[in-house]
Structures are given as structure tokens and as C-alpha cells.
Specification:
Blueprint (H helix, E strand, L loop, with lengths): L5 H9 L6 H9 L1 H18 L12 H11 L11 H6 L36 H23 L5 E10 L7 E7 L5 E7 L7 E7 L6 E7 L3 E6 L10 E7 L11 E6 L3
Antiparallel strand pairs: 1-2, 1-8, 2-3, 3-6, 4-5, 4-7, 7-8
Helix pairs in contact: 1-3, 1-6, 2-3, 3-6
């Protein structure tokens, strides 16, 4: 079954109420996507947890500027979310005057009212969302890299046009798998064969040809023989073959096209 794309998985992990019934149903049936989703959710929960910053030093403004630039964040989160914390923190070596009695920390957890100082960066929605989204994207990239199989690579493609007395058209492409094997994927918009359809790779001058197999519907995937030089056999041909037991080409082609990289 097709897997959920990265954007869809990230949105499901970031927002508990994200309206995507089909995506959530897919997670129940697909172990791979469910594992990716669980990893993303762990990251989101970690970002949501209020950290103990009492022993942490505040980085300079250049750190947030670099994060903002690399992630392409908007103007709404341009300001360094740690700037207020840095401004309020005492400088190293500062000692309060001897005649000042420190206030008892009876209300340290209360949020300031009105125009008072702002709360920590983790209490600001814009900063939290940017941080959570960045964390999800980093984790998803790692999960996707290590858990997803390499995707097939397209090597060449051709548009198939109808030959005389036919109107079927379509396309063909050669893709390479992770193990280096190649396959030809052929698709036509209709089946016009009076007998059966056979797929061929043919030399440009039509002097040499290789049969890849029978196509029983309007599409099919065929293994390309290992070592076959596609530059010597670039023509994709779909023929109409009679059921006469003769393995040779019938000389009746339904559609044809030339592969190009």
C-alpha cells in the first residue's frame, strides 16, 4: 500500500486534532508509517515538556538568526525567543547590594500580568511551534532515511504514439531498483490487439529486437535483461501478435516510441 508522505505524517504528529481520518486509519494498518509516526510524536512531546533552564546558559542572538535563516521561518518569529531571558539574567559575577534583601521565591511560577516581562521562550506559541516543527522535520528526516527503502530511479522515458490503423497511445519508462536491476514500465490508454500485446526493445534501424514479454492489459512492468545496452535498443514497441505459436514479431505494431534520458 502507498505510504503517507512526509508532510502528512508531520501534521498528524504536530496536531492532535488534525482533520485527516484517512491518514489516521492508514496508521492502524501500516506498521512502517505507524513506527515513523510514533517517533515523531515522541519528539513533539519532548518539545512540549517545559525544560529546567536554571543551569543552562543563554546562547547569543546569532544562534537564533542562523536557525531562522536555515529553516526559512517567517517574520512573526524573527525575534530571538531567548532575548528576553538573556536580558533579565544577571551577568556573571554580579552580586546584589548588601542592603537588598532577596525576595522569597513564593510566586516564581506565576505569569506576569499586563505589560510585565514576558514568560520564557517555551511559553510563547510562535516560538514553540517553530521549535516543534523544526524538531519534527529533523527527526522525520532521520527516520525516513534509515527506515525507508531506496526509491527506484528513472533512467529513461518515451512517449508511445500510435502506428498505422491504430489509435492507442501511452508512455514507457525504464527504472533502476536499489539492487541495480532495471525494469520497463509500459502504459497504453487502450488495448487494440486482435491477438495479444507483446512488448519489445528494438534497435533504431529495426534490425535487432528483444522481446520483454506479453502485456495482458493496458499496462505492465517488464524486467530488462542484465547487460542489455539500452542505447543499442532504445525503441519501445507494443505489437499485436496472433496466436500462431510463432515467437517472431508479427510486423504489426500498435504503438512505438524512443527512450530518452
Amino acid at each position: 500500500m502507498p505510504h503517507l508522505d512526509p508532510e502528512e505524517l508531520s501534521l498528524l504528529a504536530l496536531y492532535d486534532e488534525w482533520d485527516d481520518p484517512a491518514g489516521r486509519e492508514h496508521l492502524l494498518d501500516c506498521p512502517e508509517c505507524a513506527a515513523d509516526y510514533a517517533a515523531l510524536r515522541r519528539t513533539v512531546e519532548a518539545v512540549r515538556t517545559t525544560p529546567d533552564t536554571s543551569h543552562l546558559s543563554v546562547p547569543g542572538p546569532g544562534v537564533w538568526a542562523g536557525i531562522h535563516r536555515e529553516l526559512g521561518l517567517g517574520e512573526s518569529v524573527l525575534e530571538d525567543p531567548l532575548a528576553a531571558t538573556a536580558a533579565d539574567a544577571p551577568a556573571p559575577g554580579d552580586v546584589p547590594p548588601s542592603n537588598v534583601v532577596p525576595l522569597a521565591p513564593t510566586n516564581r511560577g506565576a505569569r506576569p500580568k499586563g505589560g510585565g516581562a514576558r514568560g520564557g521562550w517555551w511559553q510563547r506559541p510562535g516560538a514553540w511551534l517553530a521549535t516543534a516543527a523544526a524538531a519534527v522535520l529533523v527527526v522525520f528526516g532521520a527516520v525516513w532515511t534509515f527506515n525507508r527503502p531506496p526509491q527506484p530511479q528513472e533512467l529513461a522515458a518515451a512517449q508511445l504514439t500510435p502506428l498505422a490503423q491504430h489509435s492507442a497511445a501511452g508512455s514507457a519508462k525504464v527504472v533502476a531498483a536499489a539492487d541495480g536491476s532495471r525494469s520497463l514500465e509500459v502504459s497504453l490508454d487502450k488495448d487494440e490487439a486482435k491477438g495479444y500485446q507483446e512488448v519489445w526493445l528494438i534497435a533504431p534501424d529495426l534490425s535487432k529486437l528483444v522481446s520483454l514479454g506479453v502485456m495482458n492489459s493496458t499496462s505492465g512492468t517488464f524486467q530488462v535483461p542484465a547487460g542489455l545496452d539500452l542505447s543499442q535498443y532504445p525503441v519501445v514497441d507494443v505489437s499485436d501478435e496472433p496466436m500462431d505459436g510463432n515467437p517472431a514479431h508479427s510486423s504489426v505494431s500498435i504503438a512505438r516510441g524512443t527512450l530518452a534520458s
